Amino acid sequence: MTNHAVLAWPGGEHATSTWQAARRRAHHVNPLMHISLIDGVVLRVRDREVVLNSRKARALIGYLVLAPNMKETRDRLVGFLWSDTEQVKARASLRQLLHLLGEAFDAMGVVGVSADKELVWLDGSVIVTDLHKLLANVDQGEPAELLDNETSITDTLLRGYDDLDPSFSSWLTIKREGIRRLLIRKLEVQLCELSHRAETIKNISRALFQIDPTHEVACQKLMSACVALGNAGSALAAYKQLWECLEQEYGIEPSTATQELVVAIKRGVLAPSG
Predict the structure, then answer these.
(1) Pseudo-torsion of CA 103, 108, 110, 112, nearest 10°?
(2) Element (H or E) spanning 120, and its range?
(3) What is the DSSP letter of 263?
(4) Can you give the pTM of this predicted structure?
């Protein structure tokens, strides 16, 4: 999977002929645009940041990147960004915002956002995002270090835009949870891959355990991998984290299988490999 070939989310509609034509034209002239969605919204072209002083302009880009086929109707954009504003004024605000974006992208020599009377869209063929690269790395069995270090990675998606508009906030909450579940599914698939070495299993299971600290299978795999790598202390620390989380969240203890694994580690029955 390349970094910029498959960026549309599953379930997207087929692009209109106008949109497809614009994408074909832009593909030949546009350099890659790097968009960061984790911990805010930052756009870069040729390693230069695209300066957007409007929060709603950045939010619109973030929304479009996560929309099916990176396109959306003007009506829905108005509803998400100006839900408390009278319709005529809201549509005028969207036009002004698109003009601002057009000027900013023109200054960088890129097409950026395109629009017609009904739709607004991005050219996904020339866009690379940190989120899509993160998902691609997981599919390759190589979860990014960011997944290992960040406890709730999906909560950082478009961070700082929750208070932009009530409708946008609701959409963002749902989108974050959807991506969280997608990451969990992808990591679970990788944990079932028998060809992975202990170090890879440790990285995958730790990433999954970070996203869902109540995930017992991830904890078990992490503990076993840590022991195989000669680090029983880390295995027991993971178990302690699981125990505390389950007790705090649900008032329960880890399963018998997990507790038996801990006993085996403490007794030295489960030993380092090699």
Answers:
(1) -50
(2) strand 119-122
(3) H
(4) 0.82
